[in-house]
Design goal:
By secondary structure, the chain is of the alpha/beta class. Helix content is 39%, strand content 13%. The protein has 14 helices and 7 strands.
Length: 308
C-alpha cells in the first residue's frame, strides 16, 4: 500500500480515504492544515490506485467493501494505531461509513464528504436502483463492463479524460453514450475547468493515471453490488460513531431521487446515523469539495475532531 504519512506517532491519527478518480494527493491541503494542529495525517492510495497494487487488478471482488476494510485494519496494525479519526470523500466516504458500521470501537469520529450513509435496501441493489432511475447510459452502469471503459479512455488523451471527469458529478448526471454512438470520447471537453483544477494539479493527476490506468478506480463501481450483498446482514444496524457530513450544494449525490428528503426532511439520515451531529451544505460547490474549498473543508474537519 502506498501511503503518505506525516506527524508524530503520539498524535491522534486521521486516515483520509479518497474517491474516484483521485489519489492521496487530493487530501494534500487538509494534511497541510491539520498536521500543524497536532494530528498525525495518513492518506493511502486505495487498492488499485497507483502503487497500491493487488494480485488480480481486474477482479471486481478485490475491491469489495470487505477487502477495503481489511486494508484499513491492516494499515492500522502496521502503524500500531488502535483508534483513528476517519475522513472520506466519494468512494472513500462509502468505505468510511462501512468501517464505522462494522468497527465502531476503532473510530473516534468521522467526517464524510459527498456520499451520506444509506442503509442497504434488501429489495433492490444499488446498481438496479441507479439503472431503473437513470437508465443504462448512466455512468455507473456504463462503467460495469470490464475493459470497455478502459479502452475508451485509452483512445483519448488522459488529460482530456480527467477534464471531463473532474467537471462531472454535478447537478446533471453523467451520461455516457454507447461506444457505437461515440462513447466517452464523444462527450465535450470542458472549455472552462473547475477553479481548483490548475495546470499543475491536472498535470500531476494526468501523469499518475497515464501510468497506472483506470482499472482500479473503475473496479469499485463493478464491485458495487458485491458490497451491497456483503452489507445486507447489517441493513438494520446503525452507525454510532460521532459523525459530520459535508456536501457541495451542486454535488450529484445530493440530488439522487429522495436524497434531500432523507437528509433534511424525514429524518432518515439521523435515524440511520443516530450520532450524526452536523450536516453542512456549501453553496455553489460541486463534487470535489475538499479541493474546491480546501480551507473551509479543513476548518470543518478540525472544529469537529477537536471535540473528540
Amino acid at each position: 500500500m502506498n501511503v503518505a504519512s506525516v506527524g508524530s506517532e503520539s498524535d491522534p491519527a486521521i486516515v483520509f480515504l479518497h474517491g474516484f478518480p483521485e489519489v492521496w494527493q487530493s487530501w494534500a491541503n487538509q494534511i497541510l492544515y491539520l498536521n500543524p494542529k497536532g494530528y498525525r495525517c495518513i492518506a493511502p492510495d486505495l487498492r488499485g490506485y497507483r502503487k497500491t497494487e493487488i494480485e488480480v487488478p481486474g477482479d471486481p471482488e478485490s475491491y469489495s467493501v470487505e477487502n477495503i476494510i481489511k486494508d484499513i485494519l491492516a494499515l492500522m496494525k502496521i502503524l500500531n494505531i488502535d483508534k483513528i479519526f476517519l475522513v472520506g470523500h466519494d468512494w472513500g466516504a462509502f468505505m468510511a461509513w462501512s468501517f464505522c458500521l462494522l468497527h465502531p470501537d476503532k473510530v473516534r469520529a468521522v467526517v464524510n464528504l459527498s456520499v451520506p450513509y444509506i442503509a442497504m435496501n434488501p429489495d433492490k441493489s444499488f446498481l438496479d436502483g441507479f439503472r431503473d432511475y437513470y437508465g443504462d447510459l448512466y455512468y455507473m452502469c456504463r462503467f460495469q463492463a470490464i475493459g470497455e471503459m478502459e479502452d475508451e479512455f485509452a483512445s483519448m488523451d488522459t488529460a482530456d479524460v480527467l477534464k471531463i471527469l473532474y467537471s462531472s458529478f454535478g447537478l446533471d448526471p453523467l451520461m455516457i453514450p454507447l461506444e457505437k454512438d461515440g462513447g466517452f470520447k464523444s462527450l465535450p471537453i470542458p472549455k472552462t475547468l473547475p477553479s481548483w483544477l490548475t495546470d499543475e494539479v491536472l498535470g500531476c493527476y494526468t501523469k499518475l493515471f497515464r501510468k497506472s490506468g483506470f482499472t482500479g478506480g473503475l473496479s469499485y463501481y463493478r464491485a458495487l453490488d458485491i458490497s451491497w450483498k456483503l452489507l445486507l446482514p447489517w441493513k438494520d444496524a446503525k452507525v454510532k460513531v460521532p459523525a459530520k457530513f459535508i456536501a457541495g450544494a451542486n454535488d450529484h449525490p445530493l440530488h439522487f431521487e429522495g436524497m434531500k428528503d432523507y437528509i433534511f426532511i424525514n429524518g432518515g439520515f439521523k435515524k440511520d446515523v443516530p450520532s450524526l451531529e452536523e450536516v453542512v451544505i456549501i453553496q455553489d460547490v460541486p463534487h470535489f469539495a475538499n479541493q474546491a474549498k480546501p480551507d473551509e473543508i479543513s476548518g470543518h474537519i478540525y472544529e469537529f475532531f477537536k471535540k473528540y
